[in-house]
Structures are given as structure tokens and as C-alpha cells.
Fold:
Amino acid sequence: MGEDRMDMVVVREFDPSRDVVAVEEVERRCEVGSSGKLSLFTDLLGDPICRIRNSPAFLMLVAEMGGEIVGMIRGCIKTVTCGKRISRKVNNHSISYNPVPVYTKVAYILGLRVSPSHRRMGLGPKLVCQMEDWFRQNGAEYSYMATESDNHASVKLFTGKCGYSRFRTPSILVNPVFAHRVTVSNRITIIKLTPPDAELLYRRRFATTEFFPRDIDSVLKNKLNVGTFLAVPRDSLRFGLWAGSDHFLSDPPESWTVLSVWNCKDVFRLEVRGASRLKRTFAKTTRIVDKAFPFLKLPSVPAVFRPFGLYFMYGLGGEGPHAAKMMKALCGHVHNLARESGCGVVATEVANSEPLKLGIPHWKMLSCAEDLWCIKRLGEDYSDGPVGDWTKSSPGMSIFVDPREF
Structure:
């Protein structure tokens, strides 16, 4: 596109009173899949900013040309853990060294769309650049985005034209919700924590995990948060009673795990399109058999060929030699909750090196073995602090995926 045509592009803030229909039309054009291939479509339920609405600060921009909306981008800002430092504490003539989180203000880009008829005109970089200006104005030190590792166009745009670098490669694990209930071992007790109890547990044990949100309390108290669940050996509770996270952390059992659940079903719906009649018939048959004979516990393909919702598991953690088994039990519990609420799948996203990954049930055909996160430092005038330049840091074993942006 020549400079004269670029001058005709107006980038402005999204106006929900008049832009919803036009934005939905651009989304529809961008989600047209290849002929003969399965494609995943997203229904934002009439709210284009639903995936950033619960973040501490957010913005959606639209690109307008000749009065027509031809592109948009969404972004949000939050404060997260980017590393840790060791704190030295003297108490009663003894010295202890404890890791404490190092926080930074980070921005996240998602939902970049350019209408197919207006691509290769420089609209993508222009939208990214304008969003980054807003990030800088609000004090963000870093900006990152996530995409499928095989989305070459997106990767090329951000790493080639916008100055981002490859950063982390987590895995998205998806498991179908069957018609039958999943059996959870009776040797494990699952406890639903109150938000204050869950916050205490997370801040004490997981605050140094990369991307841990400093406002974890806001996440846990959000109406979309289904709950936080802790798995412990059945015989580890004194008199079978839960005494609170403070007491638990002072003397935890040898093995335990925890996770929280976010209700994405009330934010957006997904739908798989492009399936052949044979695949649809096979999927329906598995559900009929599963529903008719639940005691057989046969795996069935959920009704993904019409709009379905999902539960997202986040804040996964734990320790001990049996932690993977306990994580499997927690995932089974979440499956049963999702089944009761009418969800089609349960999903999570974890670091590739996450030790608990072995205990997370998932179907490879539904999952993404390698998602790609790219990052950019927004300015050189920031202090390196105790972490240094985060973009050059090595990945840890775990990562905290914020459910508000999944």
C-alpha cells in the first residue's frame, strides 16, 4: 500500500455502541477455513472485548478505511512475576534465605485481525504499533503475544516486522467431556478452597512462578472462577477436617496438588466446522453408546460440531512423588463439574517441562503440542533490576497462564 492509502486508514478506539456488527463481520471473514479441512470457529457471544474485559487495564482498537472497519486488535496490561530474588532474613540469631517474586508490568496482544481483502497493506504492523504506544503510555515494560507455532503468517509478522522474539513454547492440553462420569480415587480427598484460602496458598507457594499475576486475588474472586480445588491423601486430614491453608502449609502431606477452574463457557463458545458426514456420524454414535451404557466408561467424542463451551484449568501446582496421580484425580473432578454444566471440553495450558503434565488427561488430536509466545521489550530506558532483560531469560519448569486471556 502506498503512503497515500495508508493516510486514509484511521485507527481509533472500539465503540461498542456502533462497531459490534462490523467487528463481528471481520471476525467471520478471518475465520473462513481451508476447503475440506476442519476449522475452529469462535463465537464471542456479542461481546468483542470479552477476552480482555476482566483484565486490570484493556483496550481494543479498530482500523477504519473509507468508513469501513477492516481490522482490529485487543490488548491488556497487568503486573506479573518475571523472575525471583533471594531475600535474607535474620530471626533469633538464625539466617534464612527465601525466594521472593520480582514483578514487572507486562502487556498482552490478542485478537489481531485484518480483513482478507485488506491484507499485505501494512495494517497489521500499524495496529500493533498503535497498541504498543498505549502500552508504553501506561508503563508496560514488555509486550507479548501467543499464536500457534505453525501460524507462519502471524509469527513472521511479529518476529519479522514488529521486533518480537520467540520466548516460550507451552502446550495446550484439551480433553473431551464424556457422557459418563470419571471415577476419582477414593484414596484422595478433594477440597474446595475459599478465595482467601486459595490466595494464601498461591502467594506462599507459587508467587515466583513465571507470569504469576500480582492481582491473583481479583482472579480468584471473579464471578467466572468456578473454584480452587486441592487434592490430598484421604488419611492426611486430622479428623477429616480442613484447618485452612496456613495450617496446611505449615505441615503439608508428602504429596498434594492444586488447580483452579475458569468458566469460559459464559465468555465465548467454540465450534468445529468442516467435518465430513462420516465423522459427524461416528462422533454421534460414540455419544449415544456412552450415554446408553455409562458403566462401560467408553470414551466418546463430544458434540464439537455445534457450539460448545469449555472449562479452563489454571494455577496447576503441587509436589511429592504421587503428585501426578493426584493431578489426574483433580482433572477427573473438573471433568465431572464440566459435564454437569454442559461443557464440551476441559482445557489447560502448561509449560512443556511441567512435571505435572504427565497427570493431565488429554487427547492429542484436540491438543496443541507447542503453542508459541513471543515477547518484546518496549523500551531501553527501563532498569534491568535483579532479573535483567526478561526477554533473554531461560524458561523455568512451570508457567502461570492467566485464565482471563485464554
